[in-house]
Design goal:
Length: about 160
């Protein structure tokens, strides 16, 4: 996961570090504490939206199905670009390219300007969602917690991007 955008926002990094230190002090993160770090989940989701692990998924149609005005025939392979969906201003608003971790504060389903909650799928969607998703997210939460616990001196001092 690319956390460049997180490191750009000093206020967010500083606030997250304080919460991590309040929960764990300088001890190893534990499951109870990790589940209380909502702010890290918000940061991870926004990072995954801006910088997805995969740029799309391919699905095969098993039986004829209608999709809006289209009819998809059996054995058709189609590509769903989550990169395009994750950067669509109609779904995410005019500030689609800006890192806004609070975008996910109401939950993933209520985040986007759509009604089905299927505009954010960094680990796939449906029955073929990555089986390692929960493990990966937990590992990232632990890693970020440990980084923030041990090194506050490298937090950025500005809120403007370095590029």
């Amino acid at each position: 996961m690319d956390c460049l955008a997180f490191s750009i926002t000093y206020r967010l990094a500083s606030e997250t570090r304080k919460k991590v230190l309040n929960l764990f002090s300088h001890k190893n993160p534990n499951p109870d504490g990790i589940s209380k770090l909502k702010i890290i989940s918000l940061v991870i989701n926004e990072s995954l939206r801006l910088y997805p692990l995969m740029i799309g998924i391919i699905r095969k149609v098993d039986k004829e199905v209608g999709l809006g005005h289209l009819i998809l025939l059996p054995n058709l392979h189609f590509y769903i670009s989550n990169l395009a969906l994750h950067h669509d201003p109609q779904i995410w608003g005019e500030v689609v390219h800006k890192f806004k971790s609070d975008r996910f504060s109401q939950g993933i389903a209520k985040t986007a300007n759509d009604y089905n909650g299927a505009s954010f799928f960094p680990f796939g969607i449906g029955p073929q969602t990555c089986v390692g998703m929960n493990l990966a997210l937990t590992q990232v939460k632990i890693a970020l917690s440990m980084i923030l616990q041990r090194d506050g001196s490298s937090l950025p001092s500005t809120s403007s991007p370095p590029f």
